[in-house]
Amino acid sequence: MIETRNVELDEEYCVANRGLHPGPYVMLSVSDTGCGMTSEVQEHLFEPFFTTKDAGKGTGLGLSVVHGIVSKANGAIHVYSELGIGTTMRVYLPVAEDLIEKGSLEEDAADASLSGSETILFVDDEEVIVKVMTRILGRQGYEVLSASNGEQALELASIHDGPIHLLITDVVMPRMNGQVLAGRLLSERPDTKVLFVSGFAENLLQQLSIDRKEVHFLPKPYTQDILLHKVRVILEEIRTNNVTNN
Questions:
Q1: How far apart are CA 178 and CA 42, in angstroms?
Q2: Cβ(160)–Cβ(154) below 8 Å
Q3: How far is CA 21 from CA 6, 39, 66, 80, 88, in A?
Q4: pLDDT for 112-169, tens place per residue?
Q5: Contact 156, 121 (CB under 8 A)
Q6: Which of 200, 193, 238 is closest to 218 using CA atoms?
Q7: What end-to-end distance do the CA atoms of the chain give, in Å?
Q8: What are the φ/ψ torsions at residue 31 (nearest 5 degrees)?
């Protein structure tokens, strides 16, 4: 059962349920009549790579990505579950009372030239994202090397003769995360720029020792124009630096 409704949360409710402040919210509730969860499972529910599935049957990233997106929107997720009865998840999102003006990044993306001819290594463990973004970047004139994991990305880089101007990689991936991938690639190709993308909240990046001030970062979800604009900004930095050095 999927339900949506407007709710007004008072101070008493917010004290009992962390992550919320009193005020108006939109509530999205999803309930099932499945097997339910133990309290131990619920404690680890939103942790990256935590899963109750057998090995090879799932990555355990779905709910952690949802948690990251909701947290970025200043919302919260509450879970109620009983073994043998089912589970209800409620997502609370704060109400926007005024129309939000488009950010300057989106406005710039509409006017900027988003095409290029540089080589981009795109890495994401979601194959659908890899296919879509490879097509989008290719349409803009970029040469795209695409991979669904870190090992495959490093193999592609090792056999590619020309320069790799930009690595675009998801931060959290199984076996080899984006930080390790970037480090190994830069040890062989120090001139390559790196763009990290992630659907997780900023505190996860801090746990991975990724300083957002020192790297390029783009939060998920993003539109294709926002990504293309970000790519162009980074690659123009390379051109500017080359001109300056020459």
A1: 27
A2: no
A3: 15, 25, 20, 20, 21
A4: 478 999 999 999 988 888 999 999 999 999 999 999 999 999 999 999 999 999 999 9
A5: yes
A6: 200
A7: 63
A8: -125, 145
How far apart, in whole angstroms, are the C-alpha atoms of residue 171 and residue 152?
A: 16
User: Helix axis angle, 224-245 relative to 104-111, nearest 10°?
Assistant: 80
Task: Give residue 154's pLDDT.
Answer: 97
Joined tokens for residue 122: 């795109």
**Percent of the chain topping pLDDT 90:** 33
**Where exactly does CATH 3.30.565.10 map onto the chain?**
2-94
| pLDDT average, residue stretch 174-186 | 90
CATH 3.40.50.2300 in the chain: give the residue spans: 104-245
Task: Please state the pTM of the whole predicted model.
Answer: 0.57
- The architecture that CATH gives domain 104-245 is 3-Layer(aba) Sandwich (3.40)
Three-state secondary-structure class, residue 149 = coil
One-letter amino acid identity for 81? S
For domain 2-94, the CATH architecture is 2-Layer Sandwich (3.30)
